Amino acid sequence: MRNFRAWLLRLAGVFRKEQDDREFVDEMESHLQMHIDDNLRSGMSALEARRRALLKLGGIEPTKEIYRERRGLPMLETVLQDLRYAVRTLRKNPGFTIIAVLTLALGIGANTAIFSMVNALLLHPYNFPDLDRLVRVWENRGIDEGADARLIAPQDAADLLSGAPVFDALTTYKCGDLNLSAEGNVQPALGCQVSANFFDVLGVGPALGRAFNASEEQPGADQVAVVSYGLWQRRFAGDAALLGKVIQINGKKYTVVGIMPRGFDYPVPMELWVPLGLSPAEKTDRAKLSLESLGRLKLGISVAQARSAADSVSRRLQQEYPTTNANRRSEVLQLRRELYLYTLPLFLLLQTAAVFVLLLACANLANLLFARIFGRQREIAVRTALGAGRWRLARLFVTETLLLACIAGGVAVAGSFWSVKVLRTSIAPSWTMWVPGWDGIQVDRTVLAFTVLLIAIVGLLFGLGTVLHSGQALPYAALKEAGRGPMLGSKCRLRSALVVAQVMFALVLLVCAGLTTQAFLHLVDVYQGFQAASVLRTEIRLPEESYPGNSQIASFYDRVLRGSASLPGVSAAALVTNSPASNVDNETTFFTISGRPAVNASEVPSADLQISSPNYFSVLRIPLVAGRAYSYADNANAARVAVISRSMAVRYWPKGDELGQQIKLGPANSKEPWMTVVGVVEDVRQNWWNPTSRPTIYEPFFQTPQRSMVFLMRAASNPAGYASGIREVVRGIDDQIGLTGVGTLEREITDSIAIIRIMGVLMALFGCVALALSSVGVYGVLAEGVARRIPEIGVRLALGAEPRDVMKLVLGQAVKLTGIGLAIGVPIALAVNRAMSSLIFGIVSINLLLLAGFTLLLLVVALAAAYLPARRAMRVDPLVALRHE
Amino acid sequence: MAQKKDVWQGTLALMVLKTLDMLGPLGDLLAVNYGTLYPALLKLEQEGYIRSEWGVSDNNRKAKYYKLTRAGKKQLEREARDWEQTTSILARFLAPGEEPS
Questions:
Q1: I want to staple A696 with a disulfide (CB 3.0 to 4.6 A). Which of A308, A320, A601, A645 is the partner?
Q2: Which helix or strand (DSSP H or E) is residue A432 part of?
Q3: Closest chain A residue to B30 measured between Cα atoms?
């Protein structure tokens, strides 16, 4: 307590120096005067009295000094002093300061911006309490290669919960379109059927009203609904009286019991949640993986423990129910990880690239600092000669570099507020709404803490580096030689090593940037098997109330197809359930081949199911491999037919006898009609993350009409210009039907890979920065070296060296440094290349041409950077140069 | 004139406190110069054991007066006790006859 009080007073003392000084001098003077008075009284002369008093009491100046140390905090005072000095030095060299600050700000800013993205998307995608304990649980049948749906059979989910004692709770749900009608107005809404404990597992309850009771899971008692904040505001004007009101969903009456808080959007931005009322038969079903599932782990249970527990349950089920569960495995994945299963490597790549940019910036700054230290050798020598200890000097340098890092960090943070805004608004909200956490991208406390940490690390490292670098200066040698003569060998080597490192980093970064940019450019080509140019797309959803039966649906869409095909310049129009690049997986279905029924449910094969209108293959120019595509003649009255994808034909009819075969949807005992395979079409890649093409069955739309379809239309040119045309057509048939997502298919494709596009742009930017920084680095070191070697070059010239030789000398040094950097960089870049090609889904291949190109580019840039110093060296006048000696 | 002793480490604060308590001069027993005295006074003041104010001396000079605070009185008692304890322990060590040379 006493110590703290003293410390506070001393702290205050730091800032009231002058006043305190004056007072203390007064005090001492009065004290001294008393002694002089005493001495005078005892008969001394005035001079003698003062001398004696001073002798007795000690000198005034040393006392002041000791007193000062006790009054304030000497540590703090020197820090302030160093800081003032640092500010002064930086202000005296505005050129150095600006370049250093900008270089560092670039490096720190890049990291801050990327980290703000990583922080929001990877670390805080959802605001659920204890997010790390939430896991997605699903099953894998073992025979559906390439299938991506993460589903579980209802009874298996129940067995997992009871058999693996690692879950606090497990909830299941199933999402899809629901038709919501309120006040006579029918509109499709995104909805989810969820178990009663859904909101409990997530740990988020309704903002108003209540969640579901367990009793509401029974069919018949399940007509209650929870609505989203957005739907409540939009459709019901935020009226709190909505609670207890009845709304119609899919033609049935539901009572609204709860309203979710704003921003709650699990599993995707949903508008409605209703209970998952399964019949007893559905509940105990094991054959079909039909539900999604989310578990909350018990406290202290790791994902690995959960995984092995779930695994042992799965093995037991395999034994107990071989007909359905043979080969079936369960998977457990953290919810946080599941979200970014495909993009996580890209984020890591980006963050690593940002760190590389910072390292490059640091290498550059280090070069600048070391050059400056060299220029300041005389100053350091004088300070050392005057008694400054190494520790004291070190503090001075560290203060200076920390100050630099702080200014740069400030600039970087200010810049990242802006860049984060740009990042957030550069992708259409229609896509970012599906990216959990996107709206959370901001420079928040975590990001600031990260930045401060970076600043501290960078500042301290540089300070220490500078200290170590300057420490060797011997005062007498430095005073004699400062600013002249060649650099000491070790220092020269250090700076050369920095250049080598820079060239290496630059090469690796450039290769990464090149690969990512190339990946982005080629991603569009990834959607092989169809042509997206000149195609307009839109989604159409028909309400059940006005379109209750197949005939109404078919006649509506028939009129849409005919109407749009007659628009001038339109060559064809078609419908499909899920257009390519929608970022949504196709519906999967079991199927049975006539004459080859699967004995066990576990062996029923599965395929993607697409339902499309006759012209679908010609609109997207999907090549027909064999047989025929279906036509308008394949309608409800005709025999059922199907077209299959090439990979399906190859897999199930390796002998090529697929045409004319009979298949039906579902297992062997299903009541689905048999269909004749009439044609085979080329494989189409559905989404960018699907590495292989799934077997796909295409059914004719007019034999099995659906209410929600994607409409596609091929125009001669400018497909976007037909948006109003298609709206007119639809309005002319039914003015209650709105179109959503009207746009070109090409736009859809680029939007669907928006996140990769952004990363491509960022990587390209990083690559350019890397190139610029490393060329500046090479230039800096060579220019400095030439300046220092002018006397030596003068001697060489005087002794008969040709200017050409001198130029060769300098360029040779550049080639040597760059060459070593490249020699180290090439294998690393190759390794990175290999790692990336496995990371980015086989899109990026090892690209030696790219590597060779960038190697050459760096060499050329280094030579260009060396040219100016080399020319300067060539033009050294031996007379002038030697006069300096 | 007897040789003056230097101030023992750590005892100055006690002496200053005692002196202020008795309102007496430090006397001529010790040679305390400014460089020792003033920092000690400052430290005690910062710790709140003494208080200072400007006043006028007997012969009409401006002078700074130091006074003991309540906390200072307590501290004095504590330190005096500690000191006595220390010296008594030392005394017991030195007691068995041996003459210091």
A1: A645
A2: helix A429-432
A3: A56
Q: Using CA atoms, how far apart are residues A438 and A881, in angstroms rounded to an integer? A: 62
Residue A70 to residue B33, Cβ atoms within 8 A: no
pLDDT for the residue numbered B27: 47
Scan residues 64-103 of A and list those with Cβ closer than 8 Å to B: 66-67, 69-71
Q: What is the mean pLDDT of chain A?
A: 83
pTM of the model: 0.71
Q: In chain B, whose CA is at the least distance from the CA of A6?
A: B46
Which is nearest to A794 in space by CA: A804, A784, A806?
A806
Phi, psi of A43 (to 5 degrees): 95, 15
Q: Nearest residue on chain A to B75, judged by CA atoms?
A: A2
For the record, the structure tokens of A477 come out as: 């040698």
Alpha carbons A553 and A549: distance in angstroms, whole number: 6
Q: Cα(A493)–Cα(A157) distance, rounded to whole angstroms?
A: 65
Strand partners, A170: A295
Count of beta carbons in the 10 Å neighbourhood of residue B55: 10
Q: What is the dihedral of CA A41, A47, A49, A50, to 10 degrees?
A: 130
Q: Do B63 and A5 touch (CB under 8 A)?
A: no
Beta bridge partners of B63: B55
Cβ pair A3:B39 closer than 8 A? no
**Look-up: residue for tokens 């909101």?**
A199
Contact A240, A273 (CB under 8 A): no
Cβ contact, residue pair B35, A71, below 8 Å: no
Pairwise CB contact (< 8 Å): B35 & A62: yes
E strand residue ranges, A448-579: 535-541, 570-576
Q: Would you place residue A186 in the very low, low, confident or very high pLDDT band (cuts 50, 70, 90)?
A: low
What span, in angstroms and rounded, lies between the C-alpha atoms of A64 and A669? 104
Interchain CB distance below 8 Å, A5 and B42: no
DSSP annotation of A197: T
Q: Please, is A238 exposed, middle or buried when counting C-beta atoms within 10 Å of its C-beta (0-12, 13-18, 19+)? A: exposed
Interface mutation target, options A67, A68, A69, A73, chain B, most CBs of B under 10 Å: A67
Q: Which residue has the tokens 């760096």?
A: A858
* Beta carbons of A223 and A257 less than 8 angstroms apart: no
**What single-letter DSSP state applies at residue A586?**
P
Tell me the C-alpha distance between A171 and A818, whole Å: 59
Complete DSSP assignment for A88-151: HHHHH-HHHHHHHHHHHHHHHHHHHHHHHHHIIIII-S---TTGGGEEEEEEE-SS-TT-----
For residues A771-784, one letter each, b for 16 or more C-beta atoms within 10 angstroms of the residue's C-beta and e for the rest, the string is: bbbbbbbbbbbbbb
The candidate with the shortest Cα–Cα distance to A248, out of A218, A225, A277, A231, is A225
A-chain CB neighbours of B57 within 8 Å are 30, 34
β partners of residue A698 = A610, A643
Could you report how far apart the first and last alpha carbons of chain B are, in Å?
20
| Beta strand spans in A778-824 (E) | none
In what helix (H) or strand (E) does residue B50 lie, and over which residues does it extend? strand B50-56
Alpha helices in A597-657 (DSSP H): 616-619, 646-652
Q: Which chain A residues are closer than 8 Å to B47 by Cβ?
A: 2-3, 5-6
**Among partner residues B33, B35, B57, which is closest to A34 by beta-carbon distance?**
B57
DSSP H or E run through B48: none
- The Cα A518–Cα A496 span in angstroms is 33
Residue A841 gets the label, from left (phi > 0), alpha (psi -120 to 50) or beta, of left
Q: What would the pLDDT profile of A223-267 be if each residue is shown by its tens digit?
A: 899 999 988 888 888 888 888 888 888 778 889 999 999 888 888
Query: Could you tell me if A316 and A729 are in contact, meaning their C-beta atoms sit under 8 angstroms apart?
Result: no
For the stretch A410-444, pLDDT in tens is 998 888 888 888 877 777 676 676 677 777 788 88
